[in-house]
Amino acid sequence: MVAAYDSNLNVFRPADTIETAECWAAALTHLSTPSVLALTRQSLPTVRTSAAENLSAKGGYVLKECDRADVTFVATGSEVALALETADLCQQKG
Question: What stretches of the chain show up as alpha helix (H) in DSSP?
Answer without folding.
Answer: 17-29, 79-93
